From TrEMBL:
The keyword Signal does not apply. Belongs to the binding-protein-dependent transport system permease family. LivHM subfamily. It is a multi-pass membrane protein. One of its GO terms (biological process) is amino acid transport. It comes from Stella humosa. GO terms for cellular component: plasma membrane. The chain crosses the membrane at residues 12-32, 39-57, 63-82, 94-118, 142-162, 196-216, 228-256, 268-286. Pfam families: BPD_transp_2. This is Branched-chain amino acid transport system permease protein. InterPro entries: ABC_transp_permease, BCAA_transport_permease. It is found in: Cell membrane. The lineage of its organism: Bacteria, Pseudomonadati, Pseudomonadota, Alphaproteobacteria, Rhodospirillales. Keywords: Amino-acid transport, Cell membrane, Membrane, Transmembrane, Transmembrane helix, Transport. The keyword Amino-acid biosynthesis does not apply.
């Protein structure tokens, strides 16, 4: 294998890692604020893919506008789901298990809804930008460059919102203690709904960017949500920056690993990393060790 080919694989790993990071960041944001595991996260990703397929590939709407509509549409659906299921269950005893069961039910419902609406056929979406970036012997499709640039911009914007805005302060206060935050005037229930919608919106961003690379189908969310859970474990449960670092780390290790072995080992490498972290550092890269 030449060094150029190895470098291309690493760069592809970084780009795929940026998608893992967005998916994981959405999941971590929801868990960090509400302490629930959203098993419907992959299906919100799938809905984002079908939104972009319908708007861009079938209706010829500009891809930027198609992705924006997809993000808003998925976020609104997620907010509705949160208000009708999670928000109700959080007020009851045993919510830790019941919310998992509820999001699993939502996942199955959305998957079957997509199957009924669009069938089991795999749908393709054209590239948003054509051509190759070529530097010497190094080549990379402009579509992948676009994915990386947009992913980094979205994650930077989210990090800035969480760190420097009143909404971000309210999210952090709710994440630390929702009841105490409510006492001082923070609308904790509304913050829960908004963060749930934001997490799903991040999944829709990833789906919109990856739709031209991977086929759109009712089962497309499953592989990504599994990787998102791995990313959340690597970065530390509920840690937004940890999910970002974990996503890039997973993407790079996967790329190097399959370069040295074969693509069939991709999932083995990911789960091997997760098991290794659970063994050596179960609280993740950015998590805090419980005493």
């Amino acid at each position: 294998m030449t060094f150029t080919l190895f470098l291309e694989q690493v760069v592809n790993g970084i780009i795929l890692g940026s998608m893992y990071a967005i998916m994981g960041a959405g999941l971590a944001l929801i868990y960090g604020t509400m302490r629930i595991l959203n098993f419907a996260h992959g299906e919100f990703y799938m809905l984002g893919g079908f939104f972009v397929f319908f708007l861009f590939a079938q209706q010829n709407i500009h891809p930027v506008l198609a992705i924006i509509i997809a993000v808003i549409g998925v976020a609104l659906i997620a907010a509705l789901v949160q208000r009708m299921t999670v928000s109700v269950l959080l007020k009851r005893e045993g919510w830790a298990f019941s919310t998992i069961a509820a999001t699993l039910g939502v996942s199955i419902f959305l998957q079957n809804l997509a199957l009924a609406l669009w069938g089991e056929r795999f749908q393709s979406v054209p590239y948003f930008v054509e051509g190759l970036l070529q530097v010497g012997q190094f080549r990379l499709p402009w579509q992948r460059v676009l994915i990386f640039v947009v992913a980094v911009a979205v994650m930077a914007a989210m990090a800035a919102v969480l760190r420097w805005t009143r909404f971000g302060w309210a999210v952090r206060a709710t994440a630390q203690d929702a009841e105490a935050a409510a006492v001082v005037g923070v609308p904790a229930a509304r913050i829960h709904t908004i963060t749930f919608a934001l997490g799903a919106g991040l999944a829709a961003v990833a789906a919109g960017l990856l739709a031209p690379v991977f086929a759109v189908n009712p089962w497309m969310g499953l592989p990504l949500i599994i990787k998102a859970f791995v990313v959340v474990v690597l970065g530390g449960l509920g840690s937004f920056p940890g999910a970002i670092v974990g996503g890039f780390l997973l993407g790079i290790v996967e790329a190097v690993g399959i370069t040295l072995t074969s693509s069939e080992w991709r999932d083995v490498i990911a789960f091997g990393m997760m098991i290794l972290f659970l063994w050596v550092r179960p609280w993740g890269l950015f998590g805090v060790k419980e005493r």
